[in-house]
Amino acid sequence: MKYENKLALITAYYLSKYDDLAYKKLNYGSKNSTHKKIGLILGVNPNTVKNMRDAFDPLHDNPRVGWYQRELPRSRSKVVEMFGDLSEESLYEIVREILFDKELNNQDDFKFALGNIKESDKTLKKSYSYTTRGITGKKAEEYFLKNYKKIINDVNAELLDKRADGLGYDFIIKSLGENLYYEIKGLNTQTGGILMTEKEWAAAKNYKERYFLCLFKNFAQNTVEEIIINNPAVKLNPRKLIKPVIQVNWYVQAKDLIGK
Prior knowledge:
The chain is of the alpha+beta class. It has two domains: about 5-115, no CATH class; about 135-235, 3-Layer(aba) Sandwich (Trna Endonuclease, Chain: A, domain 1). It is about 40% helix and about 10% strand. The chain contains nine helices and five strands; from the N terminus they run H-H-H-H-H-H-H-E-E-E-H-E-E-H. It has a five-stranded mixed β-sheet. Strand 3, helix 8 (about 200-205) and strand 4 form a beta-alpha-beta unit. Helix 2 (about 30-40) crosses helix 3. The longest helix has 24 residues, at about 5-25. This is DUF3883 domain-containing protein. It comes from Candidatus Scatousia excrementigallinarum.
């Protein structure tokens, strides 16, 4: 894959994930005008930019359906792995430099990192449908919030929302005198794998039979299927994935510190 196409992929990922906010901050006018401007800057066909964006859409909470029928190609999967944990502000800064001043494009470490976005656009042999806190993740969490008393068969259960705490689980359910820990995953389609973070897997091993992995799938067809796995650390045998991740740091030069 050409280097400019890799840069376009990152930009398209930002457009898909943050949608209206992304288009507004780039300030190129309409969505079509934005695709044309990005294409002109990077030397990529504007329709390619749009198609790249559409490939990411099933992962995100925006009005477009995207290509939910297709598995995410290898190159797109790598972009999600590398940039998916960045804040909107950090991802915008990367896209801004890609498009406006191009300083980042010429950094050797950035070029090296983008080398992980492979030439081949073939899908991975084993499918990993990324369950980010986008459309599937949010819908799965909403589904659980509406149905958890029925799912755990306890109308008196008390729910504590821990999604913002980064503890390796989304919810604590107080039921029958004990705390139960629930991690929620969602799939847009009927089949596909899931990703668990290091914290989630560690929590599963720590809490054992008090930890539940809930998978809600097939949201695209509006016929949600439930899979509830108790003690997943014992019942599942996942493959460890070590992924390169882009981290944004801010470097202050020595000359800027003089006299401060």
